Amino acid sequence: MVLELSKFVPMNRERLLHIGILSYARKIKGKKDSLPRAINFTAVFYTAGLPPEFLGIASTIASLTQSEKELFSRVYPNLVSQLNYSAPYFNEENLLILSHKWPHLRKVCASVKKFAAENGIKLGPRNSEQILHRNHISNAVQHYFAGDYKLFVSSLVKAGKCRHALG
Questions:
Q1: What beta strand segments (E) does the chain contain?
Q2: In sequence order, what are the residues at sequence separation of 6 or more whose Cβ sits closer than 8 angstroms to the Cβ of residue 52?
Q3: Confidence check: pLDDT of 37 > 50
Q4: Taking the chain, what is the end-to-end CA distance rounded to the nearest angstrom?
Q5: Which distant-in-sequence residues (6+ apart) come within 8 Å of 131 by Cβ?
Q6: Using an 8 Å Cβ cutoff, are 107 and 99 in contact?
Q7: What whole-number distance in Å separates Cα of residue 165 and Cα of residue 150?
Q8: Which residue has the higher pLDDT, 26 or 54?
Q9: CA angle 116, 143, 6 (to 5 degrees)
Q10: Burial class (CB in 10 A: 0-12, 13-18, 19+), 61
Q11: Phi, psi angle pair for 123, to nearest 5°
Q12: Any residues with CB less than 8 A from the CB of 120 and at least 6 apart, and which?
């Protein structure tokens, strides 16, 4: 999903070129493609309705022992408050629609919902700007599946403006 949708994220941003010691690997083992840059990567997940802050968090915490969980909460006491910041950008409907093409999203969606419920995190929009964001990303997904990639990009950019960041 990331590789396919990231090619539509506008590239007209200035960025520092990272080479040598400052660069980071984006290669996927066994694939000729590499992961996109961070902005494209996060823009795809926000557009899909899955804030990237939620990637892997539920399964990672579930895999910890009780003492590891206690240590984790001591060294990262603001985890839930930080997830609450991105939770309004969660869009279950988009994830379920996209799961027709990328089935793993159904499991990811269920995992995020369970984690949020267990930790008192309210998923979905809470104010008018977040509702507009939800509408834009819902439109983006519909445009993508309709094959109207120009409108897909337009909706993706409008959603980014609501978040005050593309990715």
A1: none
A2: 41, 42, 45, 46
A3: yes
A4: 16
A5: 125
A6: no
A7: 19
A8: 54
A9: 65
A10: middle
A11: -90, 145
A12: 80
List phi, psi (to 5°) of 26.
-125, 10
- Contact between residue 14 and residue 6 where contact means Cβ atoms under 8 Å apart: no
Chain mean position to CA 105: 11
Global pTM value: 0.85
Task: Give yes or no for a contact between 10 and 161, defined as CB atoms under 8 angstroms apart.
Answer: no
Q: Residue type for 167, please?
A: G
| CB 111 within 8 Å of CB 118 | no
pLDDT in tens, 6-33: 999 987 554 444 444 444 445 666 767 7
H-type alpha helices, 38-103:
38-48, 57-62, 66-75, 79-86, 92-98
Q: What mean pLDDT do residues 91-108 have? A: 97
